[in-house]
Amino acid sequence: MSNVKTQVKKVIFNSIDQNKTGFITQTQLSDYVKQIFQDNHKEKAMKNILNQMDIDTPDVQINFDQFFQFMYILENADMDKLSSIYFYLTDTDYSGKISRKELRDILLKMKTPMEWAETLSESQMNAKADEDDQMTYSDFVDFFEQLIENAEEEEENENDE
């Protein structure tokens, strides 16, 4: 992410953080999103993103790094697709691609068993990685949607037993 974009986000964060604690609340962030975007769709998306980031309680303290990640997701993700939100949530280095470590980390965050997460991330990266050993957006979306479909099938099979 460019230094200019980082500085702009820092100015925005500091304007929201009026008491200069280095943290903002979800309520303050919500007020900012409503003011800037004036769009209920973005507000619903904001709640979804905060939920996925595990910072979805009104009194949670959000630091600048979390704010930066939140804005990256809000500005780039297709809010109608959970797979898109997860791509940008996973892309913690803001490169526009997913590394092996990022993929493993998100699988663990999704409460995927460690052994399965390691195996799955390795097999997916070996199959889908580009020449830089990174997964592209479209490959990640395909992978994520397959992952969700498999999880839903497993849940149905468990319910049938």
What characteristics describe this protein?
161 residues; mainly alpha; Recoverin, domain 1; 2 domains; two-stranded antiparallel ribbon; globular; calcium ion binding
Overview of the molecule:
The protein has two domains: 1-76, Orthogonal Bundle (Recoverin, domain 1), CATH 1.10.238; 80-161, EF-hand (Recoverin, domain 1), CATH 1.10.238. It has eight helices and two strands. Helix 1 (3-16) packs across helix 4 (64-76), helix 2 (26-37) packs antiparallel against helix 3 and helix 6 (100-109) packs antiparallel against helix 7 (114-128). The chain has 161 residues and is mostly helical. It has a two-stranded antiparallel ribbon. The chain has helices spanning 3-16, 26-37, 40-52, 64-76, 82-90, 100-109, 114-128, 137-160; strands spanning 24-25, 61-62. 68% of the residues lie in helices and 2% in strands. GO terms for molecular function: calcium ion binding. InterPro entries: EF-hand-dom_pair (IPR011992), EF_hand_dom (IPR002048). It comes from Hexamita inflata. This is EF hand domain-containing protein.
